[in-house]
């Protein structure tokens, strides 16, 4: 029966995870008591380098994304709570998947806080893709999407990082581009023609817009931690923080200017404040730890923001109507276009890198994971990007096909963007508080809600 | 007169605190300028180890708890603001009480950020107990509760930590069990039979549920800092972070599955998302720094969550009706049952600890404050638990009796869960914004509110 | 045309900033790869000392201030979003202005995270002044205010810190007093007599009050980071954290007592909870790193809070009616009166400082930037304060005159405190959700809103 789908899937995933954890996951040499001795300096444990960034990224994932995605009028629970559910599972799963690729030796995955940071990056990928299908998917579908997307990401990450050795500190190439094209692939398959005519529940409210801006602000404030968490310690990390701050702050100003300029009446749109302000964080990503100069970080923020804004204004409607790409949160604008600009900027920064600018640390920064000028791998990378997009989109398409399978509790068009389908929603304050004092339209509303609540879930999901 | 009760009590408490501070509180050797010399390394000051965890716990106490407790429809101010008031006083008071037990020498309490961390733990105890009586108590009662609970906790902590030397890094035994049974004792005495039939203001709204989930997310994100703040530095602290994250993330998935499974219509309940997801943080507490393995942390999260959920579903209604235990936020489920599981897990982890697993650091970790296998203190601990519950409950019962004294401004049944009694509440937006355009039921509502606001507080509190 | 004012100004400012960045701003020796060598210890980079405090202050600026200023019923977008816009620009601009005064050598401004911390302090100044004119200014006016206020602050800071060498760790003298008197100067010029009779949109709602308290809590929790970020490392910073916490927590209790005591019906006012609780953070500021003792920090918190509360109750109405000082958020109470108390306390703490209390570190703490007893500079400082107030007020008056220039899109009296003027505001939930089920007053409301939205901006702003 329909009600059992979510519990059964979750329990199955939990059993899978706990069995794999018990067989494969052990402590790494920073968490294993057995490997400490009287020469170990407790305060030199890597936890003190990694945990502050991990905590910041946790705030971004659970609170930043959670609030940002709660912008729909009647899908606040869905946005915030499905984000919580999906993120939690994606991290657990990524610990295993990335563990096999990056932290596996002696027959075991070795675990420390550094694995959690990596897993949160994989989780961010899933949450970005979630943005493309927000409000149109059941929690069962979201968990299946995470189940499939994390391994595809794990393989891609392994190829890009280990094999091509691309320097991509802020993850603009890997995280944002991957998440965007994968998400577009999924939403291509989950196309719902009726939604192109608009949906009565697709709007926002005053409160939901404020909550969503709050999410934006959390993402904005902690984005430097996200972009610098995996860079080299020292001046590299210091630059990553500076550039991210500068890029974000340039894109924020630009977003305000463009939002007023491109609206019909010169007023600001909250959707722009919620999304476009963040574009700079992505655009500086691929070159965030390089010596690009503060001014260039500023220009990258402006460029990324402009591309993102024009995308929202002109490209998204086109994609939705002509290419069946209904991109609910506009991830193609905020993560795709900006990711492409970031990639180009990253390649330029690598080409322009010289010992004159970097001194002896050139080889340290770039031996880390970047191809040198003239390196055949660089050409490989340049050729790779278009193919990558297609490839990632394909992964998304295949995942979308799985999500269209019956039994995954996809909501009907009518119940898109509607918490009633998945949550016991409280009666509204004004409806409940004056239940003794009938208001003109109250009877109808209340009836309407009771009907919804008593309707068996089967009738309103496509199975 | 009734209006003066809160100011008079607060001023009296402030005078008490400031006199005791001026007589007894001085700087510790990390904050006293006189004790620094030219060999002092400023960057080795303990403030850099303690402050990050302190700041995280501050967020949990003031923002996490504050939002979580704001879930009632018309008691959002009360939940968030009384939490603020009670927490602030409890910390000030705990600095003195714990100071006498743990930081007292040379006739003075010596103060540093480490004292603040300890005081926030005592404060968490008070706030958990507050959960049992949320909406049914006046701020005067809450301050008196903090005034009495902190010293009882201080004595218990001193016995458990100093005398029994129990390893209880995450505080599951001390903090959660103490807070639960004390709170149940209080609510037992403050029993209000009429509330068993439900109360018209006991529900939530869409907005209050979202705000409360936001509080949950802050607690969730920073819980690793709470559980690791007082563990040994180095790998112990690293493991505490990992286990807390894993335990929480297992209990979160389980909470979603059980919420859907146990509801009538297969839908998720926001109360479960707000509370049950957090169970894993408590369950891993007592063994959080030990070598329990990631998989066991996962299992502990699942077990704790299951116990917590079944408690909400079956035990709480029983306790309320049969045993006069009206546990408003279900602290017996989230802190009591999970605390018991955590204690058992902690004892097992101690019994199973061996040099094979820990290496030479075994003696360091457990000499810290844990009994060894065969140690008579361990038997003592095992015998202690049931007695502890009764003892703590007794402290709560006595406190409850004090709270029932006249002059403490306890709200009448009718004004439970209602901000009107203690706050100047703004007119609702829809009521106020169209005051020129009469709506059908407006006149009545407005009158109703003005009546409330002009009513002297005496009439609606039991004095 | 009116719609172009904001975009044109923002683009002009961006071009200005990016040109100046590209010509003048380079990396400092902690961020410049060229200056690292094989003796550089990456983990000793100052980013690890500065970034945690920077991140905390970011939360205060963007989230704390943002939520706190969102308390008006229909100006939540304005409060939160204009705070975002103004803060972003003020920081960019302060990096340049302060850079020329403090970080300029070899013909360049040298940039690291420490510059960002300083710039956020300058930004806090602008945001405090913004509080005086909240709801009565267009974003264009706010940007112009930031453009003018930051350089005036930069010069004042340079005089006070470099020349007078005042120890003002928490910035109570510089930041709070400056911001207050500058803001009062601005609002003096922007006086709107009609607002003294009250404004239909000046109230709060249940939700907006909660959001604003959330902002207060973020400011409260991270205030220790603000007050200690620029103190000497080690015990000085440790004391700054302790004193700030103690001062805030004393002022919080006092605020609750006074709020109940001074209200007509003995109930608490949310405006007091939102503002007066924070007074202690300012009052301890000027002596925050000195050996003032915990009890004195407590007393300072109580005193600051009392002055602040009495200011709200008695002084603000007087200032508004008699002196044309409409101080919307009461910054004269929260930053002016408390800043004066803090200054006096700071002077006393300097006068009382002795080698007996501080040991050899006396010279270190006070050589940093404080005059010694008997030092002529101290007398200079004492004489300076009254002149400073007048001087700062004058800067504000001149800025206010600029803001009154035509073309800055100042809202008409009717559209003060109203998001409709600057934002595309979503229809309210209850209006939108039942658009098929007409409610009694719906037709009028909807029409009213459409009229607003289609009205050209020119008609409702004074140009």
TrEMBL record, chains A, B, C:
Keyword list (alphabetical) reads: Ammonia transport, Cell membrane, Glycoprotein, Membrane, Transmembrane, Transmembrane helix, Transport
Q: Where is the Ammonium transporter AmtB-like domain?
A: 18-353
The record gives the membrane topology as:
Multi-pass membrane protein
Instruction: Please name the GO terms that the record assigns under molecular function.
Output: ammonium channel activity
Q: Which example biological process does GO assign this protein?
A: ammonium homeostasis
Q: Which SUPFAM superfamilies match?
A: Ammonium transporter
* Subcellular localization, as worded in the UniProt entry: Cell membrane
InterPro entries the UniProt entry points to: Ammonium/urea_transptr, NH4_transpt_AmtB-like_dom, RhesusRHD
Q: Does the keyword Cell membrane apply?
A: yes
Any single Gene Ontology cellular-component annotation: plasma membrane
Q: Which domain of life is it from?
A: Eukaryota
Q: Where are the transmembrane segments?
A: 6-27, 53-72, 84-105, 112-134, 173-191, 211-230, 242-262, 295-315, 336-354
Q: Which residues form a coiled coil?
A: none
State the similarity comment.
Belongs to the ammonium transporter (TC 2.A.49) family. Rh subfamily.
Recorded hits in PANTHER family, A to Z, give: AMMONIUM TRANSPORTER, AMMONIUM TRANSPORTER AMTB-LIKE DOMAIN-CONTAINING PROTEIN
Cited function = Functions as an ammonia transporter. May play a role in the elimination of ammonia in the gill.
Q: What is this protein called?
A: Ammonium transporter AmtB-like domain-containing protein
